[in-house]
Amino acid sequence: MPQPPPEPVRSPSPAPGGREWRRDPFHGVQHDVGGDLLTVGAAEDAVVALAERFGPGRLSLLGTPGAPSPERLAELGVARVSYGPFPHRRVLGALAEEAAALLGGDDGAGATGG
């Protein structure tokens, strides 16, 4: 018989963006069916609690601006850090700014290419 999912872990400090972190019920189910890795986005103290509950090397974290460094996350037991779309969005933003500057502030709609 599967164990019940763990109690929700609440972070006493807000997660990045001012949101309170709560355990997604899916993670408990994923653990109960033998999932090898749990993906979370959480404040450092919540990562510690999850690593203690699920074991080191079983957490994958969504790295967000303001998150602990990858080195610190490894010390806490995180196996993998994914940055999702954040780097891609920054590069596209920089590219759009550079293109606008090269075109004299034009959005490109009136550029002739010459």
Model description:
The structure is a single chain. This protein has 114 residues and is of the alpha/beta class. The protein has helices spanning 25-32, 44-54, 70-76, 86-102, and strands at residues 38-40, 59-62, 78-82. It has a domain at 16-83. Strands 1-2-3 form a three-stranded parallel beta sheet. Strand 1 (38-40), helix 2 (44-54) and strand 2 (59-62) form a beta-alpha-beta unit.
Shape assignment? elongated
Biggest sheet strand line-up: 1-2-3
Uncertain regions: pLDDT < 50 for 5+ in a row? 9-23
Mean pLDDT over all positions: 71
Short note summarizing the structure:
The chain has 114 residues and is an alpha/beta fold. It is built from four helices and three strands, in the order αβαβαβα.
Features of this protein?
114 residues, alpha/beta, three-stranded parallel beta sheet, elongated
Ordered list of secondary-structure elements with their pairings:
Elements: H1 25-32, E1 38-40, H2 44-54, E2 59-62, H3 70-76, E3 78-82, H4 86-102
Parallel strand pairs: 1-2, 2-3
